[in-house]
Amino acid sequence: MHAVAVCQTTDRAQGVALAMAALAKSPDTFEIKGRRVFLKPNFNTADPAPGSTDNQTLLALVDQLWAAGAASITLGERSWQNTHRVIEDKKILPPLKEKGVEVIVFDDLPSADWVEIKTPSHHWPEGFKVARPILEADCLVETCCLKTHAYGGVITMSLKLAVGVLPGNGQDPRYMQALHSSPQQRRMIAEINTAFRPELVVLDGVDAFVDGGPMSGQRARGNLMLAGVNRVAVDAVGVACLKRLGANRSIMERPIFQQEQIAAAVELGLGPAGPGGVELAAADPGSLELTAALRSILDQG
Question: Which residue from 19, 96, 193, 280 has the highest number of Cβ atoms inside 10 Å of its Cβ?
Answer without folding.
Answer: 19
